[in-house]
Amino acid sequence: MSPTVELVLGIGTLPRILLFVSSLAILKVIVKVIYNVFLHPLREFPGPLSHKISRLPYFYKHINGTLPFDMLDLHEKYGDIVRVAPDELAFSHPNAWTDIMGHQKSGKECSKAEWFYQPVESLPRHIVNEPREEHRRLRRQLAHGFSEKGMREQEPIIKRYVDLLVCKLYEHCQSNTDPIILSDWYNYCTFDIIGDLAFGESFGCLEGSNYHAWIASIFQSGRLGTLLQALSFVPRLKTVLMSLAPKSTRDAQQRHKELTTAKMLKRIEMGNERHDLIQGLLEKKDELHLEMDKLIANAEILIIGGSETTATLLSGVTYYILRNPHVFRKLAEEVRTSFDSEDAINLVSVGKLTYMLAVLNEGLRMYPPIANGLPRQIPQGGAQVLERAIPANTYVAIHQWALYRRESYFHKANEFHPERFLHDPEFAKDRDDALQPFHVGPRNCLGRNLAYSEMRLILTRVIYNFDMRLDESSMDWVKQRNYLMWRKGPLKVHLTPIHVDRD
């Protein structure tokens, strides 16, 4: 018997099994790589080789907080359609909005990607991630609260907190000369407003001049969310890691659940006559089979969607108008010459400020609160996107920050120019229809009216009352990473009251 045969036969059973299993695993990886690169239905779409092979590069960027910027680089290199993962395409063209999010000719719709919208399967669903028919029923009940008429009914609630915000800013100016962290105060105001509109009471942020623990947990969840989304593609590992969560985390989740349940019970006790965002759901909660967990889930998503995003945009707009003093001067002139008194500033009157709207839209372009793409899934039978046939089950997304920063669609794309939304000839070739911060189609953002109402009213009241100057420490404030939400540092601003006889 040859030495080689003796050596092979001498190997123990367990090592041979391990060698065989590892060989199979390596072979499986090699076969998967070959399939993804050369045989996959998306093989003809351009993109980096590493992204075609595996989802790891995509999620590395996602978890690392650089995905918005990386997407712009990919589109600049590969064009309007980029294969960013073995089964996902990123689109960067104005026409892609309606192709992906509008009504399909087949009558089907591109459903929301489960891995992105429901990374923890055990959590109750809400209006954002419900299937098509359930979404329609919930949206029908919530529609009035978000309508223009609904906003007028809720104006006293909104105005109460904007009044308190202005009073607190005046108090700060009277007590010290230090800059104020205006980004925090925008959050205090928007969270208090939406807390009242969804739960019937504020979070007490403005009164306490700090974040409620409920809100602090939202800011801590962004990076965890990106990790859970990545782990959706390795469900066994996700299950193991979630089971190993420390007791302190589980206790915090339980306290959060108890708090939100108590808040919802108090709101239910107020009855269905109160005009707020949750009124429509409470009126039909039995008919819609909305148990407590579903009511809470919908209230929570309304709070997240109706507060952090609005405060983020206000912070971004404030930064850009202060970095462009001529814009601030022009905006201040419009605000301060349009009203005879502060009492004349309301949800209707601020809608007549044309330059204000242009400033807000330019802020949404330069610093979109939702910077990354929100992926959809192509339905059975496939679909046409940008006149290309996209096979069924492909994930597709439009990454907002990357789209808005492309010179192909916006002249001087990296500069802040509100005039582009005022028919300035210099920006005549801009594709204004590319700007869709609230998305399009049957599942567009229900909170558009609320967001614009809040943004206009808050920014108008602040500018009506104060001159503002950016602190030196915040000159590079916009250099941030993004973990589903922008990781904002403190936006420090010096305020100077212009109505010294206010009291």
From TrEMBL:
Family assignment from sequence similarity: Belongs to the cytochrome P450 family.
Protein name: Cytochrome P450
PROSITE patterns in alphabetical order: CYTOCHROME_P450
Biological processes per GO annotation: toxin biosynthetic process
One Pfam family from the record: p450
GO cellular component: membrane
Species, as recorded: Rhizodiscina lignyota
Subcellular location: Membrane
PANTHER family: CYTOCHROME P450, P450, PUTATIVE (EUROFUNG)-RELATED
Cofactor (UniProt): heme
Transmembrane segments: 17-38
Superkingdom field: Eukaryota
Membrane protein topology class: Single-pass membrane protein
